[in-house]
Sequence to fold (427 residues):
Amino acid sequence: MKISFTINGKQETGEVEPRTLLVEFIRYELGLTGTHVGCDTSQCGACTIHMNGRSVKACTLLAAQADGQDITTIEGVAPADGPLHPMQEAFRDNHGLQCGFCTPGMIMSALAMVERHNGEALDEQTIREELEGNLCRCTGYQGIVKAIEAGSKAMQGAPDVQF
Amino acid sequence: MYNFKYKKVSSLDEAQQAFDAADDGTFMAGGMTLIPTMKQRLAMPSDVIDLGGIDGLSGISVDGGTVTVGAMTCHADVAASEGVQKAIPALAHLASLIGDPQVRNRGTIGGSIANNDPASDYPGALVGLSATVHTTKKKIAADDFFTDLFETALEEGELITKVTFPAPKIAAYRKFPNPASRYSVVGAFVAKTKDGIRVAITGAGPTVFRVSEMEQALTSSFNADAISNISVPADNLNGDLHATAEYRAHLIGVMVKRAISDCG
Fold:
């Protein structure tokens, strides 16, 4: 079956089997490999993307369900040759990653979190509660929580930034 | 997962026709249970009928003492609804405890209650608040809707359209979540309604159930001490690697007491 959707501002079309997962289409057909597959059982959140502005797990969506929708992946949060998004920068500054496998999902979840709270700076408790859909096996989360706290603050000072 | 035919429908009639035409069709709401189940090859429907394109099935309205939630309304919307937070804060709180943010952005009330997972949260709210399930064929009282493990009063091909909740005087939901999955090991919904006290337990048994002995005790005296001597027998409760039946029986008392305290 044929599907067509907007991804990172670009219109894409493709031919998929009904059972094709959205994350498979994004990675293997579109070559956008920033969206990771960690557990493939909707627990770890490494495959988190935004669909119509909301964080969702791309391993638990059919590509067919994305037909006609608006999708953003980690590749779409900052220009390829430009500066990092303030949230990405905050992960770098605050030791928010070690191996980096969970990081794209963490950042997509963090941006959705800021969006849910109307762009306000986030406190530690909110971050810990709302990060429950993302697993990290390296850091122990301290650096990630600090990074999201700093990233949400940095986004205050950058009103033009996307999300 | 095994392959299947996929059809996105735009009306309830079209959904019905697609279901009738399929060999072994299934409806998909948010897909948060169906897709993982199909990935594990525990389900192999011939046709998946996606309800995501039907207008008018999602949304929340609050009218006087009644909260109406459309079947395709996602948990995140129920949790964030100012109307629900004001009319039935316990319902918004319950929705905020389901799964994680990504799951709450996709999972729907209709999909959750049609599946009737014993560890799901919504059955507690429906039975605790004496809600009504509206379908394409009839209205079903929550007490009659959840019949057994993964079984409901829905007939083949019957679709939920909305759920109506009468606002209680006060209510609270407390759950002991599985730390990994966030599913309820035991969840207790306690409500003071205009027709009396209701205590609904989810997670512990094959399906949601009420504890009439606790309801009676709380009718005489609405405080946590009133149920101290009441225990629910472990017979017929769920026992698995997460918790034994005896532990779940114990947790029922603990969660009900905490819910009573939350009622203030």
Observations:
- The two ends of chain A are 32 Å apart (CA to CA).
- The interface with chain B takes residues 1, 17-19, 40-43, 45, 48, 54-57, 60-62, 64-65, 67, 109, 112-113, 116, 130, 132-134 of chain A (CB under 8 Å).
- The first strand of chain A starts at residue 2 and ends at 7.
